[in-house]
Design a protein that fits this description.
By secondary structure, this protein is α+β, with helices and mostly antiparallel strands.
Length: about 200
């Protein structure tokens, strides 16, 4: 349940990762991500900044076709749960079904951050952030975890985010997007190719 203090008129920077490695009613992965950017603008306003598109290997390796990824940044006073609900509605418009964790998908819209909020609390956020990859593949949180617990490890999220929000600072790690990007292993950065 969402805490009342998260509702109100405070505008926060919202970060969203976009990805597709399948077809949707909008076309292939590239057309799907481009279309999703336009739908995000319609849903959240003209102030939505969309990064360039990038081709990235599926994560984890072998989990499906390669992805087209992008990132969006915008300001909103909406509650995190309301934003997540709208993102799920947009995914459904693009034919998204949730059958397999990290499987092929028509559209993936991940809520990465809502300003400097840490949800549901720092201990739970740290638990999911520090979870071993094998456990991540088997378990999924039942509640919204913010910031996204793996942002600091994923070049396919950080590279597009650097286009639209390189100065956003992780409230628990104290690192900006640019600093997390710089800390990524070079082979992972090299695998994220602009389209």
């Amino acid at each position: 349940m969402e805490q009342p203090f998260l509702r109100g008129t405070i505008e926060r920077l919202i970060l969203v990762a976009l990805g597709s490695n399948g077809d949707s009613p909008y076309g292939g992965a590239r057309a799907t991500v481009q279309g999703a950017g336009e739908v995000l603008r319609a849903a959240f306003g003209d102030g939505v900044a969309i990064s360039r598109l990038f081709a990235t290997p599926a994560f984890p390796a072998g989990s499906g076709p390669d992805f087209v990824n992008a990132a969006a940044a915008f300001h909103s006073a909406a509650a995190p749960g309301d934003i997540l609900t709208r993102l799920h509605e947009i995914e459904a418009e693009f034919g998204r079904t949730r059958r397999k964790r990290w499987g092929q998908r028509s559209l993936d819209l991940d809520l990465i951050a809502v300003g400097d909020l840490v949800l549901p609390d720092p201990v739970t956020q740290a638990h999911w952030r520090d979870l071993h990859l094998s456990e991540q593949q088997r378990k999924a949180p039942e509640e919204l975890i913010l910031p996204h617990p793996r942002i600091q490890d994923r070049a396919f999220v950080l590279v597009p985010l650097a286009d639209v929000a390189d100065g956003w600072r992780h409230p628990e790690l104290g690192l900006t997007v640019a600093q997390m990007y710089a800390a990524c292993p070079e082979p992972e950065i090299a695998g994220v190719k602009p389209l």
